[in-house]
Backbone:
C-alpha cells in the first residue's frame, strides 16, 4: 500500500498519493508514523471555489473527507464505516496537502484533515486550497484533539473554515484545533494560520 517504510519512527510509512492518505486517515492511523513524499491533491484545486466551496466545473464531483456526523462523540466515520480517533504521527516533511473539501449542512458535523486526534503529532505540514464547514467544533486540521503536538503546521489563506450551524453552546471555529474540552495537553510550536 505504501511506497516504503514499516510505520516506525525510524522508518515511517511513506505517503505519495491521495488514496494512501485517505487510507491512513480512514484507518485511524493505528499509532504508526507516516511521512509525505510530495504534495498531495485530494481534489482538483481549479474545479472548486475555495472561498465558497462551490464546484466550478460542470460534472466534477469533489471527494468529501472523513467526518463525525450526527452525534456528540470523539470519533469519526472511517473508510469502512467504523468509528475511531486518529493516533500516530503525520510528518508533512515540508509538503502541502491541497483540496480538503467538506461542505456540511448537517446539524452536527466535525471535520478536519484528522477530524478527531488523540495522542497525535502533526508536523512540517501545510494545508492549502481547502473548504470545511460544520459545527459545533470545526477546524482545518482537527476538530477535536487530545494530547496532541503540532509543530510547524501552516493553514494558509487559500483555506476557508466556516461554522455552519445555529448551535449556541461550546462553539469553536479554528485553523488547527477547534476543541480540546475533553482534557489532555495540546502543544503548538512554530504554527501559523492565515485562513479565512
Residues:
Amino acid at each position: 500500500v505504501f511506497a516504503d517504510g514499516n510505520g516506525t519512527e525510524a522508518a515511517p510509512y511513506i505517503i505519495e498519493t491521495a488514496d494512501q492518505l485517505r487510507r491512513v486517515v480512514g484507518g485511524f492511523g493505528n499509532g504508526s508514523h507516516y511521512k509525505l513524499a510530495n504534495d498531495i491533491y485530494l481534489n482538483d484545486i481549479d474545479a472548486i471555489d475555495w472561498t465558497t466551496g462551490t464546484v466550478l466545473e460542470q460534472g466534477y464531483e469533489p471527494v468529501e473527507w472523513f467526518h463525525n456526523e450526527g452525534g456528540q462523540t470523539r470519533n469519526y466515520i472511517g473508510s469502512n464505516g467504523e468509528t475511531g480517533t486518529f493516533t500516530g504521527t503525520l510528518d508533512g516533511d515540508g509538503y502541502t496537502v491541497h483540496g480538503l473539501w467538506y461542505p456540511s449542512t448537517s446539524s452536527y458535523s466535525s471535520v478536519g484533515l484528522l477530524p478527531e486526534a488523540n495522542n497525535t503529532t502533526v508536523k512540517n505540514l501545510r494545508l492549502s486550497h481547502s473548504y470545511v464547514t460544520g459545527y459545533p467544533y470545526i477546524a482545518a486540521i482537527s476538530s477535536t484533539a487530545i494530547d496532541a503536538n503540532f509543530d510547524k503546521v501552516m493553514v494558509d489563506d487559500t483555506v476557508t473554515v466556516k461554522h455552519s450551524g445555529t448551535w449556541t453552546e461550546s462553539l469553536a471555529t479554528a485553523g488547527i484545533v477547534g476543541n480540546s474540552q475533553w482534557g489532555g495537553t495540546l502543544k503548538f510550536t512554530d504554527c501559523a494560520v492565515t485562513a479565512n
Residues 157 and 194 are 5 Å apart (CA to CA). The first helix runs from residue 18 to 26. The radius of gyration is 15 Å.
